[in-house]
Amino acid sequence: MHKENLTEIIFDDENNNKVNPFDLFEEWYELAEKNENKYANALSFATVDKEGMPDNRILLMNGRDRRGFVVYMNLNSAKGEQLRNNPKVAAVFYWKSINRQIRIRGYVELVSDKEADEYFATRPRGSQIGAHASDQSKILKSRAQLLEKNKEIAKKYENKPVPRPKYWSGFRIIPLEMEFWKDGEFRLHDRILFKRTNINAPFTTIRLNP
Fold it and tell me: How does pLDDT run across 26-73, given as a tens digit for each residue?
């Protein structure tokens, strides 16, 4: 099965159960990277707080494999606290340039320290310093206060590697559901849902009404 044929296969009702959603993601993501102006790796990331109120924001995917999709953050941020209390998430990739989106629902797990260290080391030095300077989501008196703290951190690590803060790491989204949506004429869109009962089960393929 050739990668370039997966989109055709998935919307062929007789053969769509032959496609693995992670392979199909790679095909769509490659197409998005070629056509989006920037940030093909941007996704909406929805969580729920202690009161059951939904929360959402745009993050960048900075890792992926056959287990899932990785986003990095300050673990003490609002989203980090929400995930510790309720490790479930809904995410959406939307690519306007190719009129396609992928919706994901599932659980999250922390990445290993090794994985977080390796990714942190690839970040621009300014971003590494910023990870130390920002108490993300906490009240800030003024931007000047943030910039002053950033200067102090930069001076502290002058001519030294900037270590990863212990409160900075990543979560891997492990999908239970992945829905692939492709724009159709007269709003007769194509929607294929891959669904499984647990993270070790095989995916079932389901066609949805637009």
Answer: 999 999 999 999 999 999 999 999 999 999 999 999 999 999 999 999
Return the domain boundaries, the chain: 3-116+167-208
Q: How far apart are CA 79 and CA 49, in angstroms?
A: 8
Instruction: Kindly list the catalytic residues.
Output: 187
Written as one string, the DSSP assignment of 128-185 is: HHHHHH--TTS--S-HHHHHHHHHHHHHHTTTSPPPPPTTEEEEEEEEEEEEEEE--G
DSSP 22-73: HHHHHHHHHHHHHHSSS-TTEEEEEEE-TTS-EEEEEEEEEEE-SS-EEEEE
Considering the domain 3-116+167-208, what is its CATH architecture?
Roll (2.30)
